[in-house]
Amino acid sequence: MSWLSGSRGVVLTAYHPSGGTGGRRSGQYTMNHDDSRRIPDGASFDRSGSQDSLDAMSLDDFWKEVENIHETRGNNHEERQAIVVKEPDEGELEEEWLKEAGLSNLFAESTGDSQESMVFLSTLTRTQKAAVEKRVETVTQTLRKKNKHHQIPDVRDIFRPQSDPKGKVCDRSEPSAVRTTESKNEMQDETKDLKFSLGTNEQKSPLEDMPFSETDINLEIPFAEQAANLKDNSVGKMYKDGGGDTLHTNFRLPKDKTGTTKIGDLAPQDMKKVYSLALIELTALYDVLGTEFKQQKAAKIKTKDCGLFGVPLSVLLEQDQKKVPGTKIPLIFQKLISQIEEATLETEGLLRIPGVATRVKSLCQELEAKFYEGTFNWENVKQHDAASLLKLFIRELPQPLLTVEYLKAFQDVQNLPRKKQQLQALNLLVILLPEANRDTLKVLLEFLQRVIDHREKNKMTLNNVAMVMAPNLFTFQGLGSKTIEQSEFAMAAGTANVMRFMIQYQKLLWTIPKFIVNQVRKQNTENQKKEKKDKAMKKLLKKMAYDREKHEKQDKTPNDADVPQGVIRVQAPHLSKVSMAIQLTEDLKASDIVARFLSEKSGNVQTLKKEEVFLYEIGGNIGERCLDDDTYMKDLYQLNPNAEWVIKSKQS
Description:
By secondary structure, the protein is an alpha+beta fold.
């Protein structure tokens, strides 16, 4: 199925599982073949940052791909059924948002730890708090209209004590204008807290004197804070239409001395916090920039529980892991990519020239029957047919690869005023994707970059590949009118630009911003303080001094007392040298420590290569974090002096 958002609801188009490959979905576009390449009169592509590339990007490839998709579907005689799903009201959407953000404990009927939510809220920035306040207000008003008496706390109770600095108890009947003024003053009071969490100079605003150029993606300051500062600053007006943020700007990530954190480097308990913070930060960014952000609700539809095409990613991986334990990418997806690459990536028009539609359909049916049996003959698959099958696989996922929930948010990236903000939004959106979708998208983008690397021979530039792939990942708004609307044409160009950014800056997109990691560290620190208080109380009430002492001894790192100042003890339980005291210096990096351990080889040590083992930061104010090679250990030690340091492989 595919989905199209209308003004009042969502239309989903699904196939009955009779005939063909069964259960496969069909998208629905609002243009027809005759009009697909005609630019509508008066079409405007003025969407600032993303649209200055249209002069260099021809839309011909885009519309040809749409026609190829229509031709493929035209040969599919399965019956379609439209399912109209009632869109939830605003209050329901915002209530769902609060739950997704990990703030369901704000609701009285929740059985979770409300104190944990309060710790979480205390680490938010002013723009993040504003985003939460807005949603809480909406939910409260909606429930009041419905005469539901959920005990949702007043937003003032969420973010500040009940008494003001003068000891006056807050009056809930206070006019909203007064509360707004107080809220602004309160946000100013919280600046110190923000500076502390970001490690910035307390005497200056964290947004002042930033040593970042226009080409740098600043991961230390929250994106919404950067946007708010730019918006409030009169200088920001010069960037209204892109400013120094041009098509040919090559953005980069400045080096972080405490190490860059990639998705997959953090333990699950920390990634859960990252997800909540990323959702709130993305919402805050869209709020500041005046772009509506609403998660779409996925419809519950019947899907196939086996097979290859039209099968949910989770079901595919469950099938595949029985054959290849630990696999994170659908086997058919991997095989199609390897089939394309085996025939050389220098083939002209690769991805752009479609396979023969009838042959692709026949191959699809044969794969369904023989792939898992291992009897499918891959020698019969031509390269362009394999490319068409790859795109077909993506299109026919029961839920889009970018997910129903966030597909519109991905589309709306094109509406953000600056390219840097578009990249920041894409970074947060990738973090929000389910793991299976994110892993599959990563493999796809890496493959597309390899295709582009051979552009001299295959004539597939970044723009060409983006144009061809965009229709396969994005679904357009509308209800099937027979003419191309101006907005739809702009949407086509916009999604192609979003696709281009995803390919070009994919390494950036899998980076967890430092400010989010710092917020996670702060949450962990505050929760540890709370746990210590709770343990002390239990000790007093239940007289469990012996058990507590035993537990604390178990938690201590061996030989901690023997480690002098400026020295860390690194454990390597899987190497021949299992422990080593390391003197910290200004230039010592994580890679130096790993290399030192690997050089200590004896008799039967297993042959581990540098790319197989990593240094981990464990405990203190982080759950577990895999360090990149360029992490400066002295700087990181100062950030987390209570951590343990362990060398191990990612698989162990």
